[in-house]
Amino acid sequence: MKSVVHPLSGREIPEYATGVFVPVFTPALQGGAMDPKGLANYIQWLGKDDSVTSLFVRCGSGRMYDYSFEEVKAAIDIGQENNQGKKYVFYGTFGEFSGKVDERPDPGKFIDQTLELSKYAEEKGADGIVLLVPWALVPKGDETIEDLQVRYYLQVADSVNCPVFIYNTPGMPEGYKLTPSVAARIKHHPNIAGAKISTADMAWVSELELEIQDSRFVLVSGHEGCYLQWLLTGALGVIGQGCNVYTSAIRAILEAFLEGDYGKARAIQFDVIRMLSCFAGYGNSIPGLAYLKSKGLDIQPWDKSGLPLTTEADIRPVVEGIDKILVNYA
Fold first, then answer.
1. 3-class SS shares of the chain: helix, strand, coil, % to 5
2. Closest CA to 304 of 23, 28, 65
3. Cα(74)–Cα(77) distance, rounded to whole angstroms?
4. DSSP characters for 241-283?
């Protein structure tokens, strides 16, 4: 496995956890079902982008809670068939879950689905899998939430022989976020590769980074708006909705950082924030997919939520705002 040495920490970071890690939007048909042809077209589209390192299929930006069990398997098949080794590809393999506390799934079924999907992804040749922090589950008996997390992560990691990432998403119930104490109990497992943390709370990130220094466990930024701060703390990779759109600019932050040109990296980071702000007031994947469609991506005008994409007329200010900056990173 190729790696990149972090210029400040000296740690070796696996190549798949560096640079632009795309949280792949999910093209859909009217009604919200995944569009197999659209997803295939998008995977091929991303495979041609030299700024991209890795793909994350079935993620938050891709409406992960709207996936059925069979759709996850189909997405894995489509991803593997259309990527053809061009990029590293990771799949969200946790069981079906609506993302609502009052609609938690049967715990046995959720874990069984997670194990089956994880093994399926590995068998199909995935570069790794991603597990949502298990807030779909509740502790058993005297078990703490921390005990629950550790049990779940280790059970899945023991069942596969590929890198496993943990996905700490916003909006979880109190007590479920990845803490240094949880990281301490799982960081040396040979299959647990690290975590993607969706936050701009750099104090929390620093505490996690401090805990994992003596291991191979790595962090990936979940917020492109503070990617430079994450780089200075110890990460090298980033996953954010903009990683679908302005990949070259985000990649340029990493390149400037590795060259030691922090002033340049800072200026590019501000450009990324300006482009991110172009999506203010819109939804998540809906305007992003609309932007890509305006650039020639062959997809249907629907989002996985079942809602239509932003119209060409309504997305025009977003396109113009982003392109005015992005032209500098062509």
1. 45, 15, 35
2. 28
3. 5
4. GGGGT-HHHHHHHHHHHHTT-HHHHHHHHHHHHHHHHTTTTS-
Instruction: Return all residues near 201 (Cβ < 8 A) that are at least 6 apart.
Output: none
Express each pLDDT in 53-65 by its tens digit: 999 999 999 999 9
Rg (CA), the chain: 19
**C-alpha 73 chain-centroid distance:** 18
Q: What is the pTM for the complete model shown?
A: 0.97
Please return the burial class of 167, using the count of CB atoms within 10 Å of its CB with bins 0-12, 13-18 and 19+: buried
Distance CA 239, CA 129 (A): 15
- The domain that holds 113 is classified in CATH as 3.20.20.70
Which range marks the domain in which residue 65 is found? 3-329
Nearest to 243 by CA among 219, 257, 262, 222: 222
* Domain count within the chain: 1
φ/ψ region of 32 (left if φ > 0, alpha if ψ in -120 to 50, else beta) reads: left
pLDDT exceeds cutoff 80 at 223: yes
The per-residue pLDDT for range 105-151, each reduced to its tens digit, is: 999 999 999 999 999 999 999 999 999 999 999 999 999 999 999 99
- The closest alpha carbon to 157, from 114, 124, 125, belongs to 114
